[in-house]
Amino acid sequence: GNGPVTSGGFGVDPSSDRAKKVPLNGSTKLDPDVRRKLQGIKGALLMRNQVQTLCEVAMLNQRYGFVAASCIDYVGGKVDPTINYAIVMSQNVDEFLVAGIIETVVPHPRYNPETFENNVAVVMLQSNSAVSFFNPIADWPSDWGQLLYVHRSLKAGILSSWNEPYVMMINQQTEVNANDQECSSASSLYAANKDQFMCNPATLTFFWSRNCNIPYGVVYGIYNTNAAAAAIYSHSVIYGDGFCGTGKIISYYLHLRNYVKWAETVTGVTVGTLHSPNAAGYTRSSNPSYSLNSPAGPNAVGVNIFGNFTTTTVP
């Protein structure tokens, strides 16, 4: 069929109402409940030399956003100045597109391209944006009853229109409680930072090749009727050669909450956060030098680890 193939997340039957799937051909519109939760959030996709990537950008406002540091090209440890980056934004569920040229990229100072530690960067757009908005970061996991895994893509052509997004809705507690041992043994980085990642084996069928299965791009935390970006895709561990084989794929999504203070230091603006007003034990990000714990040992034997890949170089 034309719809996505979603391998079940931990403890989730893909046919259940907690794993809602949206086909790309537009014949089935977003579930009203999913649509309601997504409305009001400006979604964004990174463009590299006018070609769409698989990298979601968690926009903070019309000028700043989080993206995986592995989505950026580097030369001599610095961002490659010959690559032109831009983003395409929309209201997630509408056809409206807004393009923004990226002026500056600031990778996390302790980003490790081999282990994918601190796989996050701040992008700064040129200031002449045609829109004005504000997106908070979901920063208190105990608030989240559900998670929305989302993957966006553009239809053929530059700056044309959006495909219907892939969306998987999952109960957070189901995911947290299930198969933690498998996630830890596959990725030593996860094992050393369990509370800083979401781990899920769910994949979607790559829209340019039905033989390839890829991870989602961004995860939204749901608090009551509110939704905000909670994590972005960091890396995958694959028991095999790549995303187009038959080996098991386990993907890891980095929580953004601990990088809020760093982003504020980089941008000079206050980053909004979404959490319940009476969350027990709530603490806001306050360490601009926050860094993940380094892996204590190797990953599982016989696995390959992948971070960013483009639409033309899916490994």
UniProtKB/TrEMBL annotation:
Gene Ontology MF terms: serine-type endopeptidase activity
- Which GO biological-process labels does this protein carry? proteolysis
**Residues covered by region (Disordered):** 1-28
The family database entries (InterPro entries) matched by this protein are listed as: Peptidase_S1_PA (IPR009003), Peptidase_S1_PA_chymotrypsin (IPR043504), Trypsin_dom (IPR001254)
Give the source's domain of life in one word: Eukaryota
Gene3D superfamilies attached here?
A: Trypsin-like serine proteases (2.40.10.10)
Q: Start and end of every Peptidase S1 domain?
A: 48-200
Q: In which residue ranges is the amino acid composition biased (Gly residues)?
A: 1-11
A Pfam family matched in the record = Trypsin
Protein name per Swiss-Prot or TrEMBL: Peptidase S1 domain-containing protein
